[in-house]
Amino acid sequence: xxxxxxxxxxxxxxxxxxxxxxxxxxxxxxxxxxxxxxxxxxxxxxxxxxxxxxxxxxxxxxxxxxxxxxxxxxxxxxxxxxxxxxxxxxxxxxxxxxxxxxxxxxxxxxxxxxxxxxxxxxxxxxxxxxxxxxxxxxxxxxxxxxxxxxxxxxxxxxxxxxxxxxxxxxxxxxxxxxxxxxxxxxxxxxxxxxxxxxxxxxxxxxxxxxxxxxxxxxxxxxxxxxxxxxxxxxxxxxxxxxxxxxxxxxxxxxxxxxxxxxxxxxxxxxxxxxxxxxxxxxxxxxxxxxxxxxxxxxxxxxxxxxxxxxxxxxxxxxxxxxxxxxxxxxxxxxxxxxxxxxxxxxxxxxxxxxxxxxxxxxxxxxxxxxxxxxxxxxxxxxxxxxxxxxxxxxxxxxxxxxxxxxxxxxxxxxxxxxxxxxxxxxxxxxxxxxxx
Length: 436
Known about the structure:
Layout: E1 20-24, E2 26-30, H1 109-115, E3 124-128, E4 130-132, E5 142-144, H2 145-157, E6 160-162, H3 165-169, E7 180-187, E8 196-198, E9 204-206, H4 211-221, E10 230-233, E11 241-242, E12 245-246, H5 254-263, E13 267-270, H6 283-300, E14 308-310, H7 323-331, E15 333-335, E16 338-340, E17 344-346, E18 369-370, H8 382-392, E19 406-409, H9 415-418, H10 423-428, E20 432-435
């Protein structure tokens, strides 16, 4: 195995990328990307790089406490909103393919030999922001549609299987035996992630050149790949602005888009109400930004849970100034007479994350890999670092046994990379531990 730092970086520092403001019809920032970082609440492993800032961004040295301007809500409009209809790309999830693999039962000795499961391995949580057709716009947080298609094809060809973020956090991964789970995450809800085409008769079909359109087409062609993706949605900037500015015809389509996502196996989660950053805010602002986002998203669709928190800029509350806010993230808090509880929090970079069966796993510090060539930022992105490593030696990755009720680990698992199996927690969760 090559030598590289596999620590998840939850206790390190990250740079940040501020939102780029635009004034197009509505004064709303371009929801470009969230870089950032903060010290974790435990000493120990540190991230091996700090994402760089674009040349036009500024940030106080070491403090990372200058949030962007507040995101403004869209102007009220009296336009009639067309009802969403199921066009060619807006279909229900396909039935599980008969050749999808072994699932839902313990493996035989022969199957253990065949599939070589390792449920202590690392998991890829991939991080997308803006998508574009313009190669000139490619940057740390901007990827082309064609590159996104290539990403999906590469993952499929190399034995990965799409699972939800919630499955990982709750340790109930449903990937078939022998498959490597991967989570796709999308920050900031720009329109290029999900765009509707509006017909002359008002019917809505998914733009095949948007992120959701690309995924829907790929999943339909590869029903043995799983499906889904996790969207950190900003309630007041919900899939209608991006690197090319505001798309006015998309402003009133948030409910339809969120309905579709939930109907079709995607996750709609919490990226705060304002995207202002929470590193150094008062308690009321902290609670309102997180709990208010949950309430606002539920107004679009009451099935939204939004209890997985995509931390803006990767900057957690300052440990010395706001230790209680970190406790609220982990243990819940009360706001306006109601109780709110998060189940996990996502960072910005820059490594694979731990197995939920490992003692090293902490759902409040889930590492992700930025989908970029991050060499110019001095960092570890997908193309420059992790894709070559995974292609060269994938043995340290999580490989599913196909049964969420069992945790299967090879006797020779390299626990220096994965961390030890948390046997007590697995037993408390009712898991059967299988060693082979």
